[in-house]
């Protein structure tokens, strides 16, 4: 009986000569009006409920039980909401707030009003693009350590790319936020507890659709409590160490504490420090891990793009490892990440709740409605992107750019991702460093199923064969300028956090 309401998701993936339409859910085709079925499917995967018509530039609405849901898929109206009328739409949806409040408290990602304004200025400054060069040695070194570990894995071994990328980005963000001294065991503890939390939360909040404007608090099951306790235990210890002057001097945590000492009116006590640190960790780790995983999938399915990436890295870097200074010349690597973020935006849904009644297009919207801006749909809208389901990194090359507000993997307006430059730098650099030495190969018959939980990931991970690439000969290194610091792949023995 229930099976009728839990339909299987049909996945489309097409590959032919130099054309790749990577995995995505087929258009939803159940008869209109079956809201229970729609709701059940959304609980399973939010990206599989869209009809062909939803992939058009327009504003539409549905009534889901007692709640109006407005879907905004037009760049002009998105600008209106995220920028021009931002005060009315600054607030995250009750689903998002309720799903994360237990873990993040009043952390920036889910706070609003005066708390959000004050913390936003603080956190933006700490992860700002001007600080990225200071953190880039952490990115380079950690990616090289992973390359070093991969080097020791026998050629053509199967690995799961998703947890590998999650470990890489967790280590990078953890060293950036907490400092180097966190240690393997604690990093694993932090990232495992996030993963577990994500698998346990229900982000649909049925109570909201039944009339509770603020949604209902999530049931705190023993498993959920354990995940939160694990995370808080590690982060609290780090906060304590930093407050006692035992922390790493260049970490983001230290910057937060210094700022608090200079501006006591910020009122950042130990719990607020934990909330902001956990927020930056979560926001910066999941998203970049998903981006890199999807990029490997796309490269594996589009060998013609993979070749262009390899040629470019060889031309720009020769046999030394890519560094921050190379990024302006790694056009293919950059375009692959840009196109990955278009096809698989790690945050595929931006959900807001309007404070006051309003009109969006010609739709009257009562206060407390659910406003959905869905980068997944927007980025695949035909009037905005030619052949929108196809993987074509070239659309981001030679100065070509999408139309304003049609490409928003980092959102836009005052709540735009403050870690955008950090995330982009990290993704391009990690891809270049690893792609220089390795390929990841997927069997043609392997099914990849995109699934949206809090972020967009391949549902069953991404098992792939790790293939070692031969070293590049110096003759390919035209114009490469070696830099002593990260030359070659040698990393001191024992310093690798990924060593088994
Ligand atoms: C490719 C990587 C990343 C992507 C695609 C991404 C995407 C996003 C998006 C879409 C939002 C807004 C969500 C919404 O409005 O509902 C966001 C917010 C945020 N991101 Fe990122 N992000 C990435 C990397 C990072 C990194 C590396 C950091 C930190 C170092 C970071 C820190 C944050 C924070 C703190 C917020 C909350 C901002 C606020 O609510 O004011 N992100 N991110």
TrEMBL record:
Its cofactor is heme. GO terms for molecular function: heme binding; iron ion binding; monooxygenase activity; oxidoreductase activity, acting on paired donors, with incorporation or reduction of molecular oxygen. InterPro entries: Cyt_P450, Cyt_P450_E_grp-I, Cyt_P450_sf, Cytochrome_P450_Monoox. Gene3D superfamilies: Cytochrome P450. The keyword Iron applies. Keywords: Heme, Iron, Metal-binding, Monooxygenase, Oxidoreductase. Heme binds at residue 417. Residues 470-500 are annotated as: Disordered. It holds the Pfam family p450. Belongs to the cytochrome P450 family. This is Cytochrome P450. The lineage of its organism: Bacteria, Pseudomonadati, Pseudomonadota, Alphaproteobacteria, Acetobacterales.
């Amino acid at each position: 009986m229930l099976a009728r309401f839990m339909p299987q998701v049909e996945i489309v993936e097409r590959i032919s000569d130099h054309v790749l339409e990577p995995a995505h859910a087929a258009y939803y085709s159940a008869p209109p009006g079956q809201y229970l079925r729609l709701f059940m499917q959304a609980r399973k995967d939010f990206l599989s409920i869209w009809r062909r018509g939803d992939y058009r530039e327009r504003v539409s609405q549905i009534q889901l039980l007692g709640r109006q849901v407005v879907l905004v898929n037009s760049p002009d109206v998105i600008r209106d909401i995220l920028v021009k009328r931002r005060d009315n739409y600054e607030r995250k949806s009750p689903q998002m707030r309720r799903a994360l409040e237990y873990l993040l408290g009043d952390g920036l990602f889910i706070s609003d009003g005066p708390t959000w304004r004050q913390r936003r200025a603080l956190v933006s400054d700490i992860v700002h693009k001007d600080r990225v060069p200071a953190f880039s040695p952490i990115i380079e070194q950690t990616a090289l350590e992973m390359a070093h570990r991969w080097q020791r894995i026998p050629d053509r071994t199967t690995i799961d790319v998703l947890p590998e990328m999650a470990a890489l980005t967790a280590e990078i963000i953890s060293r950036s936020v907490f400092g180097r001294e966190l240690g393997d065991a604690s990093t694993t503890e932090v990232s495992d507890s996030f993963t577990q939390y994500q698998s346990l939360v229900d982000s649909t909040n049925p109570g909201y659709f039944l009339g509770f404007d603020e949604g209902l608090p999530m049931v705190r099951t023993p498993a959920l409590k354990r995940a939160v306790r694990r995370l808080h235990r590690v982060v609290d210890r780090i906060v304590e160490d930093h407050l006692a002057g035992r922390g790493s001097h260049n970490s983001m945590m230290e910057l937060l504490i210094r700022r608090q000492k200079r501006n006591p009116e910020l009122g950042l006590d130990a719990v607020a420090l934990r909330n902001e640190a956990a927020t930056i960790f979560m926001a910066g780790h999941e998203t970049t891990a998903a981006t890199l995983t999807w990029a490997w999938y796309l490269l594996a399915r589009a060998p013609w793009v993979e070749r262009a990436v390899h040629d470019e890295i060889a031309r720009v870097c020769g046999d030394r490892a890519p560094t921050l200074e190379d990024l302006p010349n790694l056009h293919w690597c950059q375009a692959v990440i840009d196109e990955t973020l278009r096809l698989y935006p790690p945050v595929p849904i931006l959900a807001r709740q309007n404070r006051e009644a309003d009109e969006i297009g010609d739709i009257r919207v009562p206060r407390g409605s659910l406003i959905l801006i869905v980068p997944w749909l927007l980025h695949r809208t035909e009037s905005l992107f030619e052949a929108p389901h196809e993987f074509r990194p070239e659309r981001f090359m030679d100065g070509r750019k999408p139309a304003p507000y049609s490409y928003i993997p980092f959102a836009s307006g005052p709540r735009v991702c403050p870690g955008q430059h950090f995330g982009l730098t990290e993704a391009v650099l990690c891809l270049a460093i690893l792609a220089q030495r390795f390929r990841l190969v997927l069997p043609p018959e392997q099914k990849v199923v995109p699934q949206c939980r809090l972020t967009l990931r391949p549902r069953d991970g991404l098992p792939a064969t790790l293939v070692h690439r031969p070293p590049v000969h110096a003759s390919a290194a035209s114009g490469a300028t070696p830099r002593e610091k990260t030359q070659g792949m040698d990393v001191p023995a024992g310093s690798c956090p990924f060593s088994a």
